C-alpha cells in the first residue's frame, strides 16, 4: 500500500502514511461532531424536557459516530485505495468518489436495517460521504498539482 499512498502526495512530502491516518481519524471525528450537534438541536426542539433531549442526542451521537467510523474504515478506505491506485488528487474526483460511495453505503445500510432503502436515506448518505471525503482529503493534506496550499 505504500506505493498507492505515495501517489497521493508529491515526492517531497514527508510521512504519507501518517498523513493518511490523520485524515482517516480526524475527518470522521469532525463529521461525527457536526452530526451530534445536529442531533442535539433536533432532539432539543422535539422534546420538552432537557434530560430527555440530552439522552436522545447522546444515543444518536453514539450511533452516528459508530456508523461514520465504520463507513470510513470500510468503503472509505476502499475509495482511498482506488484513488491512490489511479493517483487522483483532484477535488472533484474526491468529492464524486465520496458521494458515490456514500450512496452505496446508504443502499447497503437501508437493506440491512429494513429492506428497501428510500431516496432520502441514499441522498443523506451521499452527502455525508461527499463531506467525509473532502474532509479526509483536507486533513491528509492531499492536493492536486494546481491547488494552492
Report on this structure.
By secondary structure, the chain is mainly α. The chain has five helices and no strands. It has helices at 2-6, 16-46, 50-85, 91-114, 119-140. Helix 2 (16-46) runs antiparallel to helix 3, helix 2 crosses helix 5 (119-140) and helix 4 (91-114) packs across helix 5. The chain is globular.
What is the share of helical residues?
over 70%
- Radius of gyration over all CA atoms, rounded: 17 Å
Kindly report the average pLDDT value.
86
What structural class do helix, strand and pairing data support? mainly alpha
The ordered string of helix (H) and strand (E) elements is HHHHH
Shape: globular
The major beta sheet can be summarized as: none
Helix count, per DSSP? 5
Low-confidence stretches: none
The span between the termini is 26 Å
List the helices and strands and how they pair.
Blueprint: H1 2-6, H2 16-46, H3 50-85, H4 91-114, H5 119-140
Helix pairs in contact: 2-3, 2-5, 3-4, 4-5
Condensed summary:
The protein is built from five helices and no strands.
Give the key terms.
single chain; mainly alpha; 5 helices; globular
Amino acid at each position: 500500500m505504500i506505493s498507492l499512498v505515495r501517489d497521493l502526495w508529491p515526492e517531497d512530502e514527508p510521512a504519507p502514511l501518517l498523513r493518511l491516518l490523520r485524515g482517516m481519524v480526524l475527518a470522521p471525528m469532525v463529521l461525527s461532531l457536526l452530526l451530534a450537534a445536529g442531533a442535539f438541536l433536533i432532539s432539543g426542539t422535539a422534546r420538552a424536557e432537557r434530560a430527555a433531549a440530552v439522552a436522545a442526542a447522546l444515543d444518536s451521537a453514539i450511533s452516528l459516530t459508530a456508523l461514520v467510523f465504520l463507513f470510513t474504515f470500510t468503503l472509505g478506505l476502499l475509495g482511498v485505495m482506488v484513488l491512490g491506485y489511479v493517483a487522483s488528487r483532484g477535488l472533484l474526483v474526491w468529492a464524486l468518489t465520496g458521494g458515490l460511495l456514500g450512496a452505496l453505503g446508504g443502499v447497503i445500510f437501508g437493506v440491512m436495517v429494513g429492506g428497501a432503502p428510500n431516496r432520502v436515506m441514499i441522498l443523506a448518505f451521499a452527502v455525508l460521504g461527499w463531506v467525509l471525503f473532502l474532509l479526509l482529503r483536507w486533513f491528509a493534506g492531499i492536493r492536486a498539482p494546481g491547488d494552492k496550499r
